[in-house]
Amino acid sequence: MEDQIIYRIRSFNRFYVRQIGLLQNSVLNTGYSLTEAHILNELRHNPNVTATSINEVLQIDEGYLSRVIKKLINLSLITKKQSTEDKRKYYLNLTNKGIEEHQILDDLSSKSVREQIENLSKPQQLELVDFMTSITKLLK
Amino acid sequence: MEDQIIYRIRSFNRFYVRQIGLLQNSVLNTGYSLTEAHILNELRHNPNVTATSINEVLQIDEGYLSRVIKKLINLSLITKKQSTEDKRKYYLNLTNKGIEEHQILDDLSSKSVREQIENLSKPQQLELVDFMTSITKLLK
DNA sequence: CAAAATACTTGCTTTTAGCAAGTAAATAAA
DNA sequence: TTTATTTACTTGCTAAAAGCAAGTATTTTG
To answer: Which nucleotide is nearest to B31 (CA to C1')?
Structure first.
């Protein structure tokens, strides 16, 4: 009974891990790691934040984050500016190039999703979204 | 219109990545990597297969797989036996210890899923599974 | 039989990540 | 108001995870 439910959820999870894997591959082929892409995405949606506030979301090792940020600066994708009120803090922002690269990654993700649903009719697509919304409501 | 659909699917994907991340953490706390756990799982469901056939599913670097298999052998979790008909091939199997360890990992995964739905009523749980089944049917 | 393909291994390197100690600045406590 | 603690970020060192390319042994194919 109950175990049937667990079994089916786990089966769905395996299926969906593969689905999401397909999506992530499209990003990874761009030469950016998932972590780098996440940072660009965070900064696109929350400009002028600090490493610490990024990490409240991403939850990765501080030291590692510091290095990845350094790398993104060297790639001219982001800038770092020391706060004048609190000199411990450094505000991060995307450069124009960073915005462009983020856009490319974002478009790729959308394209990948689009390809996965292109064989569905519009009503089926809407149905799909409804199922997803329902799952989110139940689990969140 | 269409973009709304893509947006919502991507939003669900982000949500579900986090869900699945929670599940995987329970495995990672056991000291096995995800790759190691996947190999144990493959061998549990398909005994007596070769590294190559495992890799048709897992799709990782051959060399790396070879080393992970060696590690699992050193941990006495799996065995490797050369085929007599084709000496290039080596059949892999779980040892009793491997079966036990796999069971532990499997139980942990189930437990983790169980915890994520424990606050739902039984009808809600059944509904959840229905939504998942519907999504799978649409996307697979 | 020679050449190509298959199955797996090994050496070397890179990427990703984590830990711990350290600097500098700000805040709280004595 | 000095001292201790906390915060924000950095750096050195290390380990784990993964990839690439060359190599061995065996089998298959032309």
So the answer is: D16
Question: Is A28 at the interface with chain B, CB within 8 A?
Answer: no
Instruction: Give the CA dihedral A67, A71, A73, A77, nearest 10 degrees.
Output: -130
**How many beta-carbon contacts under 8 Å exist across A and B?**
102
Angle at which helix A96-117 crosses helix A34-45, to 10 degrees, equals 110
Its CATH class, for the domain covering B2-139, is mainly alpha
- Contact list in A for residue B124 (CB cut-off 8 A) is 138
Neighbouring-strand partners of residue B94: B78
- Which of B13, B113, B132 comes nearest A23 by C-beta? B13
Q: Where are the domains of chain B?
A: 2-139
What phi, psi does B24 have (nearest 5°)? -70, -30
Residue B64 pLDDT? 98
Q: pLDDT tens digits, residue range A42-91? A: 999 999 999 999 999 999 999 999 999 999 999 999 999 999 999 999 99
Per the structure, the residue whose CA is closest to nucleotide C10 at C1' is B63
Strand B78-82 and strand B90-94: pairing? Answer: antiparallel
Query: What share of chain A has pLDDT > 90, as a percent?
Result: 92
**Contact: B134, A131; criterion CB under 8 Å:** yes
The CA angle A40-A42-A44, to the nearest 5 degrees, is 65
CA B22 / C1′ D26 distance in Å: 45
How does residue A1 score in pLDDT terms, banded at 50, 70 and 90?
Answer: low
